[in-house]
Write a structure and sequence with these properties.
Mean pLDDT: 83
Number of helices: 8
Shape: globular
Order of helices and strands: HHEEHEHHEEHHH
Number of strands: 5
Largest sheet: 3 strands, antiparallel
Length: about 200
């Protein structure tokens, strides 16, 4: 299993009160994919630029898709641009892939059988492996889980994850943190604008 798949599974496994915003999850998944590509030797970082290496073939079609979408001409793509571009709709893509593989089921509220229901991970070796990885505080997954609010408060990601002695990993985690802060700021601005609009119509 990849970090991105593990992150998607534990996000679905989170308690209802810790439901993850899809935009936040998509950005974190894009960061997780980059960590997986770093592990595979498919990319390196030059500062905050993603320098592609060879094109690996993995057992994960979505990670293969991520590798094939890398910008292969200098000055290459920045981390920030990658997170926003690759992250667009990424959580929905992972959900669809896991559902197609039978890794996800649907949980309906008592007495309500209509609608799709809340997606929940199936009881599978992959689910147990992801949960064990988080329970063991594996630094990369733990940092991303904290970033999207599965642990602690959303946005609390360490840019120097304990146990990670890798500048590239720290750089990716810091970029995810910054992107999540930007998204939170956009949401807050829109909420303020909507509140002001509503006040005009009410005559406040």
């Amino acid at each position: 299993m990849t970090t991105s798949r593990d992150l998607m599974i534990i996000a679905m496994d989170a308690a209802p009160g810790r439901a993850v915003e899809q935009g936040d999850l998509s950005l974190a998944l894009a960061g997780a994919e980059l960590l997986d590509l770093l592990d595979a030797g498919a990319v390196t970082l030059a500062g905050k630029r993603i320098v592609p290496g060879y094109r690996p073939t993995t057992a994960d079609p979505l990670l293969d898709q991520a590798a094939s979408s890398l910008v292969r001409e200098a000055p290459y793509e920045s981390l920030d641009d990658w997170l926003w571009r690759r992250g667009r709709g990424l959580s929905a893509a992972y959900l669809a892939a896991l559902e197609a593989e039978g890794q996800v089921g649907r949980q309906h509220r008592r007495g309500m059988s209509f609608g799709k229901g809340r997606p929940v991970p199936a009881d599978s070796p992959e689910h147990r492996a992801a949960a064990d990885r988080l329970a063991s505080d594996e630094p990369r997954l733990a940092a991303l889980a904290s970033a999207v609010g599965i642990r602690g408060e959303a946005g609390e990601v360490s840019v120097d994850a304990p146990g990670v002695d890798d500048d590239a990993v720290d750089t990716v985690l810091a970029a995810v943190h910054d992107a999540l802060l930007q998204l939170a700021a956009v949401r807050q601005r829109r909420a303020v604008e909507q509140a002001a609009f509503d006040n005009i119509w009410r005559g406040d």
